[in-house]
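thought: fold this chain, then report.
action: predict
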Amino acid sequence: MFPRRRVFAWAGQPRRLSLPGNSRSGAAFSCDKIRAMKTSDTEAETGENTAPESRPSNFIRDIILDDLKTNKYAGRVQTRFPPEPNGYLHIGHAKAICLDFGLADEFGGHTNLRFDDTNPEKEETEYVDSIMADVKWLGFRWDGLYYASDYFDQLYEWAVKLVKDGKAYVDDLSAEEIRKYRGTLTEPGKDSPHRNRSAGENLDLFQRMKTGQFSDGSRVLRAKIDMASPNLNLRDPVMYRILHAEHHRTGNKWCIYPMYDYAHGQSDSLERVTHSMCTLEFEDHRPLYNWFIQQLGIFPSQQIEFDRLNLTHTLLSKRKLLQLVQEGRVSGWDDPRMPTLSGIRRRGYTPEAIRNFCASIGVSKTTGSIELAMLEHFVRQDLNKRAPRVMAVLRPLKVVIDNYPENQVEGMDAVNNPEDQSAGSRKVPFSRVLYIEQDDFREVPPPKYFRLTPGREVRLRYGYFVTCTSVVKNQKGEVVEVHCTYDPATRGGNAPDGRKVKATIHWIAAASAVDAEVRIYENLFVKEDPSDVEEGKDVLDNLNPNSLEVIADAKLEPSLADATVGTRYQFERLGYFCVDPDTKPGKLVFNRTIALKDTWAKVEKKQSGQR
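observation:
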């Protein structure tokens, strides 16, 4: 299945993506360039920390470099991240966050967090709080916290100016009629019968809209541009609509609300944003963005578009994600199967892994798709460095070592993290009765199966060599207990006589085992492209019915008894796991973050060998 078409970082052309560490990479952002904003009260207002032009670049960075050369904005770099508070942020937003904050940081600039809260029917304080938490979790700080609703008075005054200047008018057409009058890509639109109202009449109607004299949807304010424009966004777009709804910040002060296309550019201008990055679907909206700024004669922010993040097996539509939550298909916005930042945080992803992933995929002007396996590669890479190793048995099978002293308990030395010598070691109790994974024993082994079978010797991790001598079965004929003997001379896992074994398996001492619930997650969607649906079906028909498995009786080593929520571990031979917030005293709950197998690394290695 690898590789799919992927987008590289430099310019508008798709290229092969190389991972950090590959000498052929030249990645657009080295991972250390996307870092948290550290803004002090005395930080310069100009871009004094301009990076050398020799650094690897991308088209947005090149625009900033050119603007600094020409002193277009007096050496300033001001960006903003402008989420709508109508849902939780997802992994696609992480790319935009890293870009907005990362570029400003590189050039000694500033980044605002601004909520585009212009639709009170879909916005909630819960979403505002979650967005701020997610940005902080990713490792970024904003220089200014703003809301589009902060500017409602100014936006209204500017709309009044456009009305007085004959650049906007009140229209009585319904939404359906406006769509019909708009025309098509091949046919021009036609003027509304209300388009030529006088400025005085329009001003009176607009003021009455503001004071609540008309019902929802009965009138709108439209910009008066060109109904024959080849760009449909310039065919007299709606600026304001009537909506008698309580706003999460302004309450019932307003019953008219600005449309995004009107509020967005003017909010940028008010904040003196120099480089306003947004995704490619807004490219055709840029002429409208510029039109409003030019007609009002205000600070000329510039809009720059880049490719949005598309991941295989992943749905990044907030509307569809909300549907999953509302229909109970997932446990909530932070369900670990969700692509939301709160979901992947709960699953155990690290902010460093997300930032490194975003740095490596870069930005372009070409829409493509990134393999989910690549994101998972960066998660494994990061967790491999930081996650302490522990032993856990998810599906326990009892093992009795018949020749081991019945009441003896030994402390075996176990390495905490072979990637971090400073992590030290710990003692793991070893005793006569153990648990091993059911998959680590076969009474009748298949070909090339080297783990425990009758008559075969294997190594117990950090323990001894053991040999299976017999089994105990239940009434169904299933093996429920394995009996072994051990070689006392092999303590620590090595034989003095130099003999070798072909398998090492992990274990848990039964007497000291800690019980836990473990949740195993798979892809939420079975199809690589979740939106690939047959006629008459919905994207939710592609949900994976086996995306969650709950293991109720896993056995863990005793060092995990007091594991705290959010702590990440590598369960040796099994994968990376994170303590879930559902954990309570006496009941540990772990989420599997990701399995150990790294498909993407193998693909990259194979590709490197072919080049």
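thought: worth noting. Confidence is low (pLDDT under 50) at residues 1-54.
final: tokens above.
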